[in-house]
Amino acid sequence: AFDIGKLRDQTGYVTYDPGYKNTGATKSAITFLDGEEGILRYRGYPIEQLAEKASFLEVAYLLINGSLPTQTEFDAFRYEITQHSLVHEDIRKILDGFPSSAHPMGILASIVCSLTAFYPKSISPELNKDELNLNIVRLIAKLPTIAAWSYKNSVGHPYVYPRNDLDYTANFLYMMFSFPTEKYEVNPVVVSALNKLLILHADHEQNCSTSTVRLVGSANASLYGSVSAGINALWGPLHGGANQEVIEMLEAIEQDGGDTSKFINKAKDKNDSFRLMGFGHRVYKNFDPRAKIIKVAADEVLQALGMQDSPLLKIAQELEQAALTDQYFVERKLYPNVDFYSGIIYKALGIPTEMFTVMFAVGRLPGWIAQWKELRENKEPIGRPRQIYVGELERDYTAIGERA
Ligand code: ACO
């Protein structure tokens, strides 16, 4: 029988905190988050100001380097990024090897990890500042190309090479939607909405994927290997994968006849594992400040694209209303989160559903890099949680023929 006293004698005391709900795993100077008040700041700057005024690359620079760039610093940073946006031609061969049914997140994680093979020096834990910066720039520069090509591969279309005259966000859209035979006209409303979305996703302190990046990085693993692990964590439907699930849920409700109350009741039924995707958050228990900004952006984009009457939007609005008035959601403080609205915007922008989480990964990249860099600079110890052992205490081996 399990004897907690005996176990304590063997292991000493450990804190039991499943899901790390109350465990501060690190000290960080990157992102401030107050879940009760709904506050989010990057390096002290309110998310509302950054989403309104900054470009995504400026925010990336801020997160990674700690301060907003001067014009000269920004121009140099942007120039470097454009110089590295091409990927090695052999990456095309790896991409070609994936079946078209492959989910782009799986491709993204694999190709990012494969960068360690193309840049073998990147795995050294002893890189100097310039070498480290080069790895960082390479990753920021190449991720949109890899992401867009993973999409092109999944639909069997020819890859489109990056254009250095376009800004980061516009270039990504161009590589996604252009064909050799038909150039994609970059729509400024779309670029502005995407820029905002990427900024809102850029960091979120010690969330699941970022903690993964830090944990893997704490073993002195490379930047590319650590970020690849973070991409896999983000893929999970309870994390970044929720934005894809939101649209799939809205479509399922529509196909079922559009009765939202049926699905709300399902979500409330404790014998049913169904959850309303895009509702609830581990940290924000009043509202998600990012969701507030995105909701306005979603309205603007849908207006600008003439899609304000879409049936999916109507279903989304009904769910949103229910969450604000239904006792079940109010009591548990389950508000629409950032993924609820980001899925709607991505859908309106014509981004394929399977690419939603990839878009999130492109946005989250600067945060992962900043957190990995901070971990290294602070020389943090290897992450190694303990456990409460609840298995058999001790038993004797029996030969296979003698087992019951
Ligand atoms: N629909 C219905 N009920 C829910 C939902 C939901 N979306 N979310 C939580 N609940 C209920 C739980 O059943 C639980 O009820 P109980 O107290 O009666 O048992 C209560 O609310 C608390 O839920 P927990 O799962 O304990 O909350 P936790 O903080 O662990 O989980 C999470 C947060 C994972 C985000 C959860 O709310 C969820 O699964 N949401 C849907 C998925 C989603 O949108 N994920 C994206 C998160 S944002 C991001 O990653 C960028």
From TrEMBL:
The keyword Phosphoprotein does not apply. One of its GO terms (molecular function) is citrate synthase activity. Pathway: Carbohydrate metabolism; tricarboxylic acid cycle; isocitrate from oxaloacetate: step 1/2. GO terms for biological process: tricarboxylic acid cycle. One of its GO terms (cellular component) is cytoplasm. Keywords: Transferase, Tricarboxylic acid cycle. The keyword Lipid metabolism does not apply. InterPro entries: Citrate_synth-like_lrg_a-sub, Citrate_synth-like_sm_a-sub, Citrate_synthase, Citrate_synthase_AS, Citrate_synthase_bac-typ, Citrate_synthase_sf, Citrate_synthase_typ-I. The active site is at H281, D339. Pfam families: Citrate_synt. It comes from the Bacteria. It catalyses: oxaloacetate + acetyl-CoA + H2O = citrate + CoA + H(+). NCBIfam families: cit_synth_I, PRK05614.1. Belongs to the citrate synthase family. This is Citrate synthase. It comes from Hymenobacter coccineus.
